Amino acid sequence: MKNLGGVMKISLNRENFNSALEKLKREYKIYAPIEIPFRGTFSDTSVIRYSEIDKIEEICFDKKSHFSAKEVMLPITQTMFYFTEDGCTMPKEQDRKYLIFLRSCDLHSVKRVDEVYLNNKFLDIYYKRVRDKVKFVVFGCPNSFENCFCVDMKTNKTDEYNIGIKVTDNKIFVDIRDDELKAYFDEVISENKENNKINENVEFEMEFVEDNEIHVDIPDNIELSDIINLDLWREYDSRCIACGKCNFVCPTCTCTTTQDVFYSENDNNGERRRVWASCHVNGFTDMAGGHSFRQRHGDRMRFKVMHKISDFKKRFGYQMCTGCGRCDDACPEYISFSNCINKLSAELKRISAEKRGEKSE
């Protein structure tokens, strides 16, 4: 996610920003978090999810989205290929590119997903052909939301965006770092030269969270032998109901399963789809011959925690978790991931102190 070209900072009103969006739609599908009434957990609540937009007024800036931008680049259900008796074909690629509005933590999350699907042992062609067409608009996050701990995860700030925006009541400040996108705003500027509604070369700073109410203490160099049989995992045997919500809302979870769909007209024709999967749900570790691993829910919790704060870092050099807090937001049993990390850290400190005590004796 390297910045391209120079920097152009401008301020413009909502009407002119929407005009730029209209021009961008000639080449881009524009996605942002929007509030959808009556689609939340209860019938009278809303859900905030990513959807195509036409105007900036549609974007939900003041609330955390329940799902991340991941569902644009890695859809919940994605057709991998169509098959017949004679062969198979891949779906056609989208002609238009993607422009996605998101927060800093979610842009950091994209980097984590890139590691898994692009920089791992095998490159994923389905993800890559979407990812190659994506550019990002980061909007500020001046205040921390409930359950966020992005500051401790160092994902609260970023400058690796194509466009950064700061939205006020009357103006939108725009930091454009991509020559291709700059051209669309140049069109708007040239159309408004005479009315002085656009200010060029303005100075402003992006608004990023500086502190969270929640803090985490992540242990370094965790060894599986030290944590695999800790009693703290047994708490989750009964508390966790293995619904998988924490995985599905997580912006860095990348596991999928495959489904073959056979058409009713001819059961030799159909399509293979990949669908989001969860390491918490039953059946995730099922193998041929009836074998299955991590039957206890606490062991599944341990697997997820280790992946987010230890295993991924050993491979790629930084933590997988970005501290967005969506897992805590979504859990119907009020299980706190950040609290689990802190309990694990305290337990490892206790074990380390006991070992030092044994040596000193």
UniProtKB/TrEMBL annotation:
Native species: Leptotrichia shahii
Protein name: Sulfite reductase subunit A
GO molecular function list: iron-sulfur cluster binding; metal ion binding
Key words, A-Z: Iron, Iron-sulfur, Metal-binding
Organism placement in taxonomy: Bacteria, Fusobacteriati, Fusobacteriota, Fusobacteriia, Fusobacteriales
Pfam family name, one: Fer4_22
Stretches assigned to the 4Fe-4S ferredoxin-type domain: 230-261, 312-340
PANTHER family named among the record's database cross-references: ANAEROBIC SULFITE REDUCTASE SUBUNIT A (PTHR40447:SF1)
